Amino acid sequence: MISLESIMQIPKSDLEEASKNLNKDDLSELIKWLSLKEDDLRYQAFLLLQKRSIFSSDLYPYWDLFREKLKSDNSYQRSIGLMLIAENARWDVDNKIEYTLDEFLLSLKDKKPITVRQCIQSLGKIALAKPETCGKITTSLIGFDLMAVRETMRKPILLDIIDVLVIARKEAMGDAIEDFILEALSGQVLDRKSKKLVEGLL
Description:
The chain is mainly alpha-helical. The chain has 12 helices and no strands.
């Protein structure tokens, strides 16, 4: 049985291997520890669950719990919900994303820029796992009000959006994506280095 002390002794390089050795009771404990106030403990529990979700579907039954976290007053909990839903979208045999995505997209307007970024980055994983969501994801990202976020966050958020649109354009082909990317390349938000990175993605 795992303990808080034992998980904190796991180096980051060993988290993936450690996640493979978890049993059902361990997972239940880790889920509880996601609500801890201590940042280091909570984050380590999250990382183990995130790694576990990549190769196993045994966290999929907790989907609705992750979905509830999207409504939390605590930004860390909202972020945890976003990222664990995204990792478990690959196991979504019941198509729960259909009734979760609208709530998920509300995080594009989160008051915390880091949560906005985690939302956008997570949408890329959802788009890969659930190609049928690409149309709605594309519409939401193209409509994102970049000028509503503080100036220092505009470039990283725009790059996040473009990363997801590059994934989505395989399923949601259309002029809107191309026009958005071309506008970003000709605009002032991205610097020369960032524009070269985007051009390399295309």
